[in-house]
Amino acid sequence: MKYRLVVRRVKATGGRRFDVFEVEAEPDESVLDVVERVSLQGDRTLTFEHACHHGVCGACGMVINGVERLACITRIGEVARGGVVVVEPLRGFRVVSDLAVDKSRMFGKYRLVTPTTLEKLDSRLDRVEFEKLYDCTECGICYSACPIANTFKDYLGPSLLAIVSRSAEGRVPAVIDSRAGVWACHAAFECSVRCPVDFKPGESIMRLRRRLLKGEVEVEG
Amino acid sequence: MPNVLVVGGGITGVAVAYDLALRGARVTLVERGSLGAGTSGRTHGLLHSGCRYIADVEVARECYTENVILRRIAPFLFEKNGGLFVAISDDDLGYRDFFLKQCDKAGIPVQELSREEALRLEPNLNPGLKAVIRVPDGTFDPLKVILSFAASAKLHSAVIKPFNEVTGFKVEGGRVVSVRILDKTVPREYEVKPDFVVNATGAWADKVARLAGLRVPVKPSPGVMVALDGRIGNMVFNRLNKPGDGDIIVHHRGTSVVGTTSWVVEDPDKVAPPREHIELMIRRGSELAPVVSRLRVKAVYVSSRPLVGEGAASSGREVSRSFAVIDHSREGVENFVSIIGGKFTTARLMAEKLGDFVSERLGIARESSTASTPLAPYWLFFEG
Predict the structure, then answer these.
(1) Would you state the CATH architecture of domain B46-140+219-306?
(2) CATH number assigned to the domain with residue range A2-101, chosen from the 4 options 2.40.110.10, 1.10.12.10, 3.60.10.10, 3.10.20.30
(3) Which residue among B140, B163, B187 sits closest to A100, beta carbon to beta carbon?
C-alpha cells in the first residue's frame, strides 16, 4: 500500500521545513521501519534515533500524527490518516537534527537524584532473588506530553519522579520535595496517557506526594 | 598522543573508544545514525552465560568470563535473573549429558533443577518438559549498555559523533591520510586526518572497508526476532540442544522476545523479516512456553550479525561466533584495522584485544584497564 510520509526537518544550519516521501509499505510495518527505509533509500541525511526496534530502549520516541509514540511499536496502517503520516520530533527537548532530540533536559537531572535502575521482584522460591530493569524505557514521551515539563525547565519531570518514587526506600533527596520536584506536577496525567509501557508516572507522583504529606518518607538534606 | 578514528557506534565501537581513551589516546568515534542504530541495539538483550555456544568450550568460557566482568563493572545495567535450558523432546534429553560435560569443561556454574522446581519458578514453561538446567544468563537493555560505554569514553575525553557517516578514505603511500565524513546534522562534508582508523562497523565492515579499497571477510547474518506484548517469565528460556531456530525466549523489562533465525545476506541494509520466519518463531517459542501463541505480537525485527566468514558457509549457524581482527597492512594500508565477529557480551574483550593491537602500532604503553574500572552510568552520556 502507498503512504505519504511527511517529516518535519530541522538542521543545525537553521530553517524548518516539511519533506514529503511517497513510500510503499505493508500496513503492519512499523513507522520506524518506514522512516529507516526512507533514510537508507531516499534521503541519507534524514536523522532519527532508534535502537531496539521492540519497545524497550526508548530511543525512537516521536510525535506521529500529533501524538507521542514509540515509532518501533506503532504500525503505520493503524495511525495513517487518509494514507498520510506526519512525523515530528518530541516536544520539550532541543532538536539535534530532524527527529533526533537532545535528551539531556531529562537525563541531566539524574545526577540530582541518582536513581536505581533495578527493581527487586518477589521470588517464588525463598532462595531465589530476582532483579529486573524498571519497565520505564526513559523514552522522554512523558516529558513531551507534560504541560509543565514543556514550560518549566527546572522540573525534574514525570519519568524520573516515577522511578524515584518506586525505588525510594523511605528516603528521598530534598529536590524531590521541592518546587522542581513532585510539587510542580499539575496532575494533567498526560504522561500516564501517553506512556507506551503503562508506567503511570502521574499516579506515582501523586502517591509520593501523599507519602510526603503523611511523613512516611524522610527528606534528606 | 595519537589520534584514533573509530568508525561505528555499536557496542564494539563504543567499547573500543572507551578502551583506547582509557589508555590515553585521543579518540573520535563517528556513527552514521544514532548510537546502537545497527546490530547492537537490535540484539535480543541476552547476557550470555556461554552455555548457548557450549559446543565450543573456548567461546563459551570467553562469554562466561565477560558476563562476570560486565556484572562487576556495571551491576546497574543487567537483570540478574539467570536462565534455564529446557529439554522438551527426547532429542533434547539426549543433549543433556554432553551439555553438562561441556559446561564443566568451560567452568560455567550450572545446576540441574527438578521439573517441579522449574515450574514453580517459571509457571509458563511447557509442563511436559523433561529436564531443566539453570545457568548464569542475564538480560539487558542494549542501548543503555552502549550509552554507558560511550559515557565512560567521553569522561576520558573521547569525542562521540552520531549522525556522522564516513563517505570516503584518501589512501596515499600505504596509509589513510584523510577521511571524508558527512555530518548529517548540518548537513556538510568535512575531512579528518587520524593517525589510525578502526573499522568497528560489524555487518557493514566490508562496505566501509571498500571505501578504502580494502576487503573484510564478514558474513552479514540476519536473524528475525518476535517481541511479545507482555513478560512471560523472569529467567531466560533456552532450548536444551545445539543452537537452532526459535530456541530462545529472552525476557527484559515488560516484554519477551522469541529468537531467532539465521541466514546470510550480501547487504545488511537490504533485509526484511520473511513472514514464514515469524510464524516459525511463534511455533517454536510455543514449544518452550505454550502461552507464546496466545500473546499479541508487539514488534518484529531483524538484526544482522557480523559473523566471521571464510569459505562457503551459507547459513549463519555454520560460521564462527568468535571474533577476528583484520590487519589491513597486509593489503598495503598500515594504519587501518577492522574488527568483526564476537557477540555483544564479548565486546569489552574484543575492544581490549583491538586496543592492544592499536597500542602496539602507535607506541602506547598503557595496558587495558576496562575489566577493572567501573562503567559510568548511561545518563552521564547526556551531560557536558
Answers:
(1) 2-Layer Sandwich (3.30)
(2) 3.10.20.30
(3) B163
